[in-house]
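Slide 14.
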Amino acid sequence: MMKFFRYAFVAAVLLGILTGCRGDALTMNYNAADISTTPDEHTMLAGFAARNDLSTGLHLPLYTHCLVVGKGADKVCIISNDLMEISPELSLEWRKEISEQSGLPLDRIFMHCIHTHSAPRNGGWRAEPGGSNYSHKERLHKVLVANAVKTITDDASFRPFKMEVGKAQTSINGNRCEKETGPVDRDVYVVRFLDTKGAPIVSIVNLACHPVCMGHKSLLVSSDYPGVCGKILREAWGGDVFQLTGAAGNMDPAEGPKMVEYAEECGRSLADSLLKVQFEKVRPTGEFKVVNDTVGLPFRIARITPEAVEAHAAELVEKWGGELSVNWSWKEDVEGWKNLILSRLAEGKVHNTLDFTMGAVNINGIIFFFTQGEPFCEYQMGARSHFPGKTVIFAGYTNGQNSYLPSAHAYEYRKGYEYEIDQMHIYIKAPYPLSDTMPEAFAEAIDKTIQQAL
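Slide 15: predicted structure.
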């Protein structure tokens, strides 16, 4: 009789443990939806000021990918779009819609763009009623939001999963200004989400390289090298594949922008590297944590005043004149910037720092770090070196594209980085250029955010 009670007690304890574990187990859901142009849509593609003509066709389809991971009622939504960018204002608007329709808190929604320069613009007059991009933007908006809401709310489709990670080296990227000696991060990571039988559901590729193999002369809609690589990996591995583009502010394809053949070449090369990866299984610790933060990046002056703006505008015109290659109308651009910032100052809408949002998600000890803007690769390499033994997936271009973030090295080297250091604020409508103390502040914020997620 005692033996029976002993067995019954052990069975009850095991049942309780298993039931508790099942209740606390991580689950996931994933969906993708097509956001390509239609055959009769000819749009202005994003990214290259020198491109003047509308798109002529489709090289590869564009998708919005949505991965939702949850622990009980707590969930996080990671969206990756085959787009160049979504402005901070539009990203916030669409994330709020997703939040309102799904019930998921806004700070649990991360909206990333892979930064391909062969996707339609979704801002500016081209995307307004009557513009060449208007119909695509409207459809993109509806499909992106609907896909995310469905993935978040379809509780019946959530399932347990396994994870594995791999790391490879690639030669497709290079420093776009310092071709021979500049900093380069050739590491490429893959995180795979598998079903309980070990079959891939979705694989995430993380690399610091601008998707600009197809330069300004190309008029084809495409996800560039990430799409080529993803197509090959899907066929080889099964499941879906998407990219989170890393700290690619100073990382271009090694041979710079060219044409569609170069995107095919780089995509195949990257896929070849990843097909050789030996994956490591991730221990299912059940860790699940989401953190968000905002960092105020310093400008060159502590306080923005009308007098400072007037003086800086005059300095810019005197220094760069009318010969700046970035834009022939430099003087007019500076004048427009000055008038806009002065009007914002009068309305009390100018901050004395450039506020940047970032966040980190811990899934079974794997860290997904997200930040706005285009950080230089040194931030990514630094973050990974500061957390040895941890896999850190580093994604820029998230929750709105708003600024390059040059590294400390770029501020010291300067040659070739004039746009990012001295001119960029004119085009992103920031009230002043960033200080050379910005890199330290940004790097500290990255480390703080990742540490909070551990």
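Speaker note: The radius of gyration is 23 Å.
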